[in-house]
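so my prof wants the structure for this chain in the tokens format not the other one, which i didnt know existed until like an hour ago. anyway here's the sequence
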Amino acid sequence: MIQKFRWKFIGAAIGALFLVLILTLGSLVGVSYVQNQKEVDRVLTTLVKNEGHLSPHNAQPAFGNQNDPINRNFLAGKYNPEAVYQYRYFSVVVGSDQRIKMINDNNVYKLKNSEINSFLKKVLARKDKRGNIKSGENTYAYQVSKDSMGHKLIVFLNETLIYQRFWLILRLAIALGILALLIFSLVLILVSGKAIKPIKDTYHKQQEFITNAGHELKTPLAVISANTEMEEMLGNDSEWNQSNKEQVAKLTKLVNRLISLARAGETGELTLSKVDFSKIVEDGAQDFKSVMKKNDLTYQVSIQKDLKVIAEQHSLAEVVNILLDNARKYCDPHGKVRVELAKSTWSKNVVLRVSNTYRKGKNEDYTHFFDRFYREDESHNSKKDGFGIGLAMARELIEIFHGKISVSHKGEDIMFTVSLKNVK
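here's what i got, hopefully its the right format
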């Protein structure tokens, strides 16, 4: 159980770090992408205003508002006239007859006229003012406008080079994020083992104390039981003797469950194998048949045959007994107890449902039902036992079997549900 808690803690810590990395690095990558997008828009707009020409004297608008301290110091940066030469672009002027009047391709590398003509045909066919055209490894953003003579001006900007910074930051963010997660996970695994060692030692001592104390308690209980039986044999069969026998049986059952609960925390003591869940539930339900009748309870049992699960036979039988005993104990007078075992319709699991009439459970706090020594009546004056030790033991055993156990209330019934993976 301690190790399970340790791995849950490690998983939660790694998950939290992953979320922080996603938010921080993701924000950095997102800001980089938006800035690149805005940069493409600004450069295209500047090129259009200057009729396809970009020079150190007219390119300042391409670097954004220089009066904005955030933009100047963190985003676009200060305007550097030399930075103009990093952009690769060309422009085409088209007359009213859709023929090329002028091409300015001084700022691109080895772009043939045939390629420019191909670009132009695609842009004219689309009939939109802005867009993108891909050519080989490069993508060109374009904007359509008019020059000072009223001719159609189409400016093309190589945005692949601008977005290279974004792709670089994205690759670095992924690499650094993975590296940070690996280093953090390794350090956390190493440190957590030492951190939980005192807790682990205390837990094991507690388990040993419960087991040893339980065995020590069995001896005086056995003596009291034997003395009570001897009194009966000598003819002293009174209501007090009967009460002693009932309390001894109750204490013996409590001690046995305490020992079982302590052992349940040590998974190495349970050998899991394929067991017949149907047979276990059938036997348990049969054992409680007379008890239910004695308590004047309606008892309904529905068991699907030959359902196998991975568990430990005696421990799984104990879980069934705990649930049936709990249903019997807390069922309303003249109420109904129902046991149902069937294969789940929606999954490959076998589902055991044990329900009983429990009208006052409508407003019950079910989050504590599986806590050890939980009592509905916190004054400890209740005539009934608390829910805790049996249900706590059932939960720990089911978790060892890699299953799930839950409780719910619907209508007038409280229902305990056990789900284990079905095997053939």
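also thought this was worth mentioning. Confidence is low (pLDDT under 50) at residues 377-387.
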